[in-house]
User: Fold these one by one.
Assistant:
Number 1:
Amino acid sequence: MTASNSITKIFFPWFVLSLCSFTLCISASSPACAKKVSTASSAPGSSSLRLHAQVSEMAVMCNAVGLSLDNSRLPGVVTKVRLGSQAFHARLMEGDRVLSASWDPNSLTVDFVRKGIQYQAKMEVRMKAVRDNWDEQVREEERRQGKTKPVATKLTAQASQSQTLDSQKFFKTMAPYEVILLIDHSGSMNGGLGIGPFDTSRWGWCRSQISDFSNFVGNRLTGGLTIVPFNDTFTIKKYATHKDIEEIFNNVLPTGETDIYSPLSAVIDSHLKDPDHHKKPVLIVVLTDGLPNQGGSLDKLIARATAALKDNDEMIISFLTVGQAPEGDELIDRLDNTLVARGAKEDIVNSMRFSQLLEVGLKNALLDAVTRAKAPK
């Protein structure tokens, strides 16, 4: 089978459908043409997707072509197709049921059913880059399970140095706070940090830093640690333990779009609904790599929240950019520097770009956020 565009339907009896599928193969320049293919076996050199060390290769591959499924294993139902992606141009739609998937060095092929008719879509993709990213996630998971020894790199050495801080000062400053970590797991978090030959994924870096932070604080935060993984949906886990965090990173993979507004609105509203909220300070930290493309206005949301606060340091919102991401830097610069001009009573936002975050580490970044907020204005 070639990589030219083709789409066909079967109008044979149902028992024939069980033996055949159809192809919609995309190419940027070639027109569509009808072609029927057999799927009794995979193409030469192809490989089935698999689950290894609790990391779903299938989810990573599908994300690379702009496809989100409701399940990390097949069969699964398409829940979102990213606009302009390979899956979008292959005419995949929400509600399609994906039965199987396979890959070769230059493409991902999925068999799916729509309204009782079976199709096949073959989508060109940079498989080496995707596989390298998946392999990094597998290695991280194997290291967590103790199956392999950590590999010493400039990144891990730098991370070790960044985690040196004054514990007594940290807990004296941070203990009164509830710490809420909003963690972006949209598809772009599969990308690298942009730090050269020792690069790792943005999601993997978040996992390492947050796991270390939860081990460090234990149960010494008065308000506890709340974890909120988000993409175009979100979940909230209050009083998260280290075990809870490991389970989250085991079961959640970067996929989908970015909506910061909805989870941020939910945690702000939850705090303000407490009659004694002024006695329970909260540090809300948003770890993200880019501009939100869904949801409402973050400026207006935060401005409204400031009107209900009695003290400036009752609520601190810190935006941290993960990876060398100009879009994320643009977002945090706007929120950090123009909030009052956009209607906020007080400036409760601070930020840190990734170059500095990588140097100091997450624990120091959180301590810095609270220290700056409490400093005399």
Number 2:
Amino acid sequence: MEFFSERLVYREFTKDDFDLFYSVFSNQLVMKYALMDKYNSKSEIIPYFSKVLENNLKAEDRKAYEYAVFLKSNDSFIGFADIEIYIRNSSGGCGEIGYFILPEFWQKGFATEIADKLLEISFNQLNLHRVSARCNSNNLKSEQVMLKTGMINEGECRKARFKDGKWDNEKLYAILVDEWKEKQITRHTANEILKDIVFERACKDDAPGLIEARNKSFFDDFIKFGECPGYNIPLDVMKQMIEYVNIYKIKIRNIIVGDISVHRMEDGLFRIGCLEVIPGFQNKGIGSRTVAFIEKKFPQAREWSLETPVQNYRNCCFYEKLGFIKVYDRIHSDKLTLRTYQKIV
């Protein structure tokens, strides 16, 4: 099976590719930071190459996928890429990606392109839910590739790799399928994203997704102020809120990227209790579109009100841009002052 990215072609190795395979794993520069040492003879690498060819024949319970990578433009061989699967079942699976690129093709963005493609294959073709990657802690360029793909640092193992007569640390990065899907969407322009926006009344099954979205959105406020009512809401409390409050989830391509809660007060008076959009989707017009949605959803509203931290300057500017007027400020704590806004319809 072949795969394609913008500039590259990925295909499984064949018996005729032995010299290409050996050219990667016998190269001192390529293997400088690798977990394994370089191979010094063709006879030494034959068992490994034979194992790769055996993997190609497996139809079930395959644990590894190795690809020879070529340039689309002239069919030049540039390196090796692989996906190793640790566990897989009907609910997903965990795997690890890796790649080695010949030196003459370094510093051209191929490593990031390969890593992005391996993640796409892992999630869309192999149906994994988690993919990781590791690197020698001294290999800063490899770490930058992981960061560019959206992977998150999960820790550093001390003295875990023996290389060139000494023990080096190893860094671990990983990304979950939902995080990867979010990253694919955020690469689109604001106009493209807004075309796919959907507002739906939340149900109790949405509670975990809403909690996750709010935690992502309000984490910085929680750290800054030491508290935030929208952060880390217990599951049972969120389910109760969904039952008694008008909560609308904001979805883009079936991913919850935020929500808005609307409280009916007295006749014609409504309050926005919470409006949040997760960081990767901010500054794309979603908040403005959401406020427009609820104003249309509740045409009987004569007045809207809300509270937001004075210290959150961007929030204040956002609401003022939408026609909300400052009413008063109140000191909530030594770190937090809340501003009440009002909008007469």
Number 3:
Amino acid sequence: MSNPVVIEAGGEVSYKNSAAAALPEAAIAGAVEIFQNSGAESASAMKIESGDTAYMVHACTVSDTETAYVFSACEPETALRENAVVSAVAEAIRDPLAVLSLSANFIIPTAERTGDERTVQYAAMMNKSLYRLRRLANHLNVFTCAEDSDFGMVKTVFDLACLCEETTLAVRSLLGATEQGIALRLCGDSVMVRGDRVMLRRMLLTIISNSVVFAAGEDMRICISVKKSRNMALITVTDNGEGICLADKTNVWSHYLDRREFGDTYRGAGFGLPMAYVVARAHGGGAVLESRPGLGTSVIISLPVSDEKAAELKSDSLEYGLCAEYLTELADILPPERFLEEYLD
């Protein structure tokens, strides 16, 4: 049986194949809205939820005025398996993580006092692994709480452009990257949103971390841009990596990712982009992945803009390169020496 296919032109559905007849109108409208809000121009992948059903959607422009959407429903059994695995892992790592944290608080300063280079090196490697586990725990917490659309978020009105600027500067500092390596492009105006700053910053750091992993090594070029489009704020993170082929695009939104499908180039648990999707959705937005093999990848997050005024434009005061949150969310890509006491104080 063929997948449901819908063609949209000028905001109206101009064609449906027979398999698309059973698609909920809300699912079609949601896919069209998220793709149009993203400003994506080439073949893209997204995840849409309508009622109790989730759909992976491929979108591509077929003419100057028409966009085709190909839907595939996520099997309910798969969703149940994903939730069961995530909940089990989240519960299993809680106690070991607490023990490791207590141990690290003793071991790191003790190792540094010895002055032995090899001992310090192993202590740094151990602590980096601890922070990687903390990052995993952060992501698992998002998934296990996702059934509650608000999952404990503390929402305030703030300038998203400011948050992205501060985050970019911090990442550059920690990675020792240049402005050319990690570029920032702002629209020049404030982009006000109502959201959880901590959660959105974690989401952005996760996307940047993924981009660094897949970017072109020493020739890494990553661009973070923020702008308004219609009534949405758009964060776009683009890298100059190898890109993702069509068959793999929808898989990136699943938090039960089979790493073997991505070959030897894939690193990590595969929770990063699914976590970004969950956070964007909890803020009333969406996530789109735009990628072509050999031409790099863009992840586009859309969030509703706010007409309210913020009490303060700046987000939380942070010393760039010294914040534990940054070390946690960037733990996969930072060298072990970043996890010694001088960076943790």
